[in-house]
Amino acid sequence: MTPQPAAAPVSVSEEPRSAGATDEHSIPTARARLLAEFAVLLVMLTWGANVVAVKAAIANVPPIVFAFGRFAAAFLVLLVFLRWREGSVSLPRRDVLPIALLGLAGFGLYQDLWASALGETTAANSALLTAATPVSTMLIAAAVGSDTLSPAKAIGAAISFCGAVGVVAATHGFGLTGASAGDLLTLAATVLWACYVAFGAPVLRRHSPLRTATWAIGFGCLGMLPLALIELPQFVPADVSGGTLGLLAFCALVPAAAANVVLFEAIKVLGPTRVMLFQFLVPAFAVVMAAFFLGEAIVVGQVIGGLVIVLGILVARSRRLAAAVG
Fold it and tell me: Fewer Cβ within 10 Å of end Cβ, the chain: N or C?
């Protein structure tokens, strides 16, 4: 595996806006918002599939080594696509550091903490704390001024969080007898992802989603590299089958590359809070696909919890409720 995740250096310029950037004052149409929500739904579906794919792949590859491999591959593919689509891969000098910090938080450190936490805490605790990410996103986005926290969004988030709790409770149960190191690492990981989304929204006013996601992923690989190198002696190339390579390709091209570009595009239309409310669907999708591909059982409580998650999302996007409680 190549030890340098970003083979091409960051090219800097003094251009005020990069190709593909959009007008921050444009108002999305109802059709654009509907298409954006459908796109986010597909992103969450691919992220649910990613959980199943990664679970199968890390049986043969150390988790952070696998994460580094798929995000490094995603970065190289996106870099080529960015050059073809927008004519350049440069970043204005003033935005190199902000996007580097976003990438280190949302991809590098997040992946390091999340993968490490899974070895220290229960799957139930990890799923519950990860499901709380939209709550962190709402609070951080409101604090930095990249989105507003309306009563309808708060109510929807609370309902969806209850549904996520139901899914976890029906599947694994809870072990919250104390704050373990794994619980704290998982919570820190969710806060990092919330920061990535909340602080990334203003950057999108100056750059296209493709450019921002490409370099965020590239810089994120730098955050994965040290622990990936530490895990590298555990990697046995002979254990890697064609199926594992196929999972790597899927995880790199769809959930890592394409989904993150689509996600940033949707954030520009819908705002970070509404987009992240859809993340409650990821565990529900993962449960269904795990049952289909891995033979894991689905219980009634999971179905009920999934329906409550959907209800919360509908409440959060309801204009009538927003007008009634606003």
Answer: C
